[in-house]
Specification:
There is one protein chain. A 5-stranded antiparallel sheet has the order 1-2-3-4-5. The protein is of the alpha+beta class. 39% of the residues lie in helices and 34% in strands.
Length: 123
């Protein structure tokens, strides 16, 4: 690998990290608005290179945070909205994993329009 190829790779990685950090903050803000009655998003980390999300939630009534690791997903562009289908998710709560397997995995969910811009960077 040439020095120029290494340099281009470093620049590309820097762009990924910067874009992911910005989008992570936006997604965290929007998610916090959506779940404010139930809890708070403590952390939201996007890794667009690996196409994964890691979410840490502190839900009301819980003593420890809930970790949700979304390992495989797809954004679907429709004429007037974007949706997401999650194919693989893991969590640190057995009961929550069972609910996700039953109600979330392989189901399509419309996303808030605020996320249309950032989502385009993943498509």
């Amino acid at each position: 690998m040439s020095m120029m190829d290494k340099f281009k790779g470093m620049i590309k990685d820097t762009v990924y990290v910067s874009k992911d950090a910005t989008n992570s903050k936006l997604f965290k803000t929007v998610l916090n608005q959506l779940i404010k009655s139930y809890g708070t998003v403590l952390a939201f980390k996007i890794d667009s290179k690996d196409r994964s999300f890691l979410i840490e939630l502190m839900m009301k009534g819980e003593k420890l945070p809930i970790i949700v690791d979304i390992r495989s997903y797809e954004f679907v562009k429709h004429d007037d909205y974007t949706s997401v289908i999650m194919y693989e998710m893991k969590t640190n709560r057995e009961w929550m994993q069972a609910l996700m397997d039953m109600f979330i995995i392989n189901k399509e969910f419309e996303l808030p329009s605020k996320l249309n811009g950032p989502i385009q960077t993943f498509m």
